[in-house]
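Build the 3D complex.
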Amino acid sequence: MNTKPKSISKNLVYRVPIYLTISRRLVDEGAKYITAPQISDITGINVETVKKDLSQICKTPGNPKLGREATTMVEEILEFGVYTKLTNAILIGVGHLGRALLNYSGFAEWGLHIAAGFDRDPKIIGTKIDGKPIYEMDDLSRIIKETDAEIAIITVPKEYAQQLVDFAIAAGVKAIWNFAPTHINVPDDVILQNENMASSLSLLNYNLKASKRKRKVAKKR
Amino acid sequence: MNTKPKSISKNLVYRVPIYLTISRRLVDEGAKYITAPQISDITGINVETVKKDLSQICKTPGNPKLGREATTMVEEILEFGVYTKLTNAILIGVGHLGRALLNYSGFAEWGLHIAAGFDRDPKIIGTKIDGKPIYEMDDLSRIIKETDAEIAIITVPKEYAQQLVDFAIAAGVKAIWNFAPTHINVPDDVILQNENMASSLSLLNYNLKASKRKRKVAKKR
DNA sequence: TAGATTGTTAATCGATTAACAATC
DNA sequence: TAGATTGTTAATCGATTAACAATC
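Done.
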């Protein structure tokens, strides 16, 4: 009775932040109602997809002809994405990327709070970055427990990634957000999200080369 | 006659860097042959998917029982992904993230070379980051032409993204790698790749919350 | 040979897109 | 009312997975 009968697809969850960003912008611009065709125009996402997504995301039914009440829609997207409840995370590896993530102020908007960073460089241990304390690796287990951190953000060189992930999981972390360019094994009950820049760069490059080939062919004709 | 009859799926291209990383590692570890089941075990990707992918990626047929000759496989993946030919890029917005990307040494491996950075902060204009010069925005068009940059990496606050993308495209850029958390419009012949951290974070968080719910239900029983 | 793997065709699955009735 | 949009069911599309013959 309690479980939702409709299955939520991965791609839908992926699109939720897009819908939230757009709806917020439209509310800021004074919109009272927001329609699926409107979002489709802005994002390029097929209008049928948007309609279906919104009907799954929002509890309040939409208004034929008018669309959905804008502020209600924003609230319901927030609720669906569980963005209002902050989850604590710790970040392992304060290199260039780790530093950038520690300094990024936008995560709170998506329900993430980075509580602390970890590194093995004595020069930065004990300092703070954007107010977040940097600890030595030996403190990992203790701080994870103290902060109740559920997510570990991995921004270390690939050689160290697996070992540190294992430590973090042993200390109670329930999800891994992996920025290290390597494969990582986690137990079944731990969520693993890979942020693979190589993959998206690769896709970009491939499409670029493909479109270049096409352009050449077009010129020849 | 010249065009490939088999269509290459987006997801396959996305997996190519994974195959490359793994095969390189196996070669380093002394492997003479690499098999699909082996890669499947390491990555968790379904073995049928790996088999099919590899047969599309590699020209040389595999060896029943033995697998594929390891070094040949690495070469053919490199060739498929066009990783050996460097493409020039410029990076717009030298904030924390922009700085991290400028400092990242791994891009060369995937065929990307960042030739220059752009920012409006006079304090960093004229300096170099990891050897890459930082210019003012007014130099955008000139430098894009001089370096023959085909890719613009966008790491500016969302308010400025669209405008700068338009400039870059006007100057001849053929692809946009967008890290700004906003939607961007590009002409049909320009490749757009969004790096949406909010989306993957959102998916991570959603899965985390879902697994937590599941755990609670399991406990109750 | 037996066994493992390749390569390819067929079946399944899931997501997107199309179609259409309901309704303000 | 006419027109635009919602919500939902059906059709299509594409990717994954399964099945199986070929082969070293």
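Chain A touches chain B through 57 residues (CB under 8 Å).
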